[in-house]
Structures are given as C-alpha cells and as structure tokens.
C-alpha cells in the first residue's frame, strides 16, 4: 500500500512539475530501497510497512534537528526547505497521536503487559511499536513511560 502510494505520488508530482515534492518523495523511496536491502540481508523479501514508517519518522526527526540548526544560523531559506520536506513525508504517515492519546495508549499497554518498573520499558516499547507504528513519537513515549514509573 505505502509503496504504491509513493510511486503514484511521485508520478503525479512529476506531471505537476512540483520539483520540491519530487525531491522529497525520491528521498523516501531511496530510504525504502535501503531498508529493502537490509531486509534481504536478514532473509526477508522486503522491509515491512512498520520498518518504513519508522524510517520516515526518523527522516522527520533529522529534518527537525536540521531546522533548529538552520534557524540558529539565520538560514530561514534552508529551514523552510526542510519544513516542506517534513510536510511531504507526513502525508505518507498515519495521523500522529497527540500527547493525551499517547499517554492513554502507554497506560493501556502498561496494564496489558503487567509492567511494574523501568525494567519493563523494552517490553512496553515493543508492544507500542507493533500496535502504533508511525503514529507516535517514540522519543516522547520514552519520556511518558519514565514519568509513570
């Protein structure tokens, strides 16, 4: 599904001569191909949708870090370019959970897994990644878990 959406969006943006969107989609596709190569090395046919969503989340995180650096260096033009790429990447991800939704999901998984301390953080994170792939910022989730224990 995601792969077809990317190819379709690439074609549409090429026809519309939207060079910025074409560039961002090509970056996603390049990352996807890299993940596929890694997956084949592990004996899989291709990377899972979960792996691809995690890759795109990471791409967004990298761009947000770059925006901070560009703004500190008074390069609004470059920050705007990164923000535009984030907007394109986000169109291929499921709706992001807000802080309240993430807290509720974390509490539900804690109850479901019977987690009782920080030692169970790995188990909690694993379940959250499987259930809510691409829907939550795992960095924020880590902080939420730490506040619960």
Describe this structure in words.
It is a single chain. 76% of the residues lie in helices and 0% in strands. It has 149 residues and is an all-alpha fold. Helix 3 (49-72) runs antiparallel to helix 4, helix 5 crosses helix 7 (138-148) and helix 6 packs across helix 7. The N and C termini lie far apart (38 Å). 17% of the residues are buried.
List the helices and strands and how they pair.
Blueprint: H1 2-15, H2 19-41, H3 49-72, H4 76-90, H5 99-113, H6 121-131, H7 138-148
> Main β-sheet, in a few words?
none
CATH class of the largest domain: Mainly Alpha
State the helicity in percent bands. over 70%
Q: Any low-confidence stretches, pLDDT <50, length ≥5?
A: none
Helix run count: 7
Please give the number of β-strands: 0
At the third CATH level, what is the topology name of the largest domain?
Hypothetical Protein Yqey, Chain: A, domain1
Tell me the span between the first and last alpha carbons: 38 Å
Short description:
The chain is an all-alpha fold. The protein has helices at 2-15, 19-41, 49-72, 76-90, 99-113, 121-131, 138-148.
Throw out a few tags for this protein.
mainly alpha, Arc Repressor Mutant, subunit A, single chain, Hypothetical Protein Yqey, Chain: A, domain1, 2 domains, 7 helices, 149 residues, globular
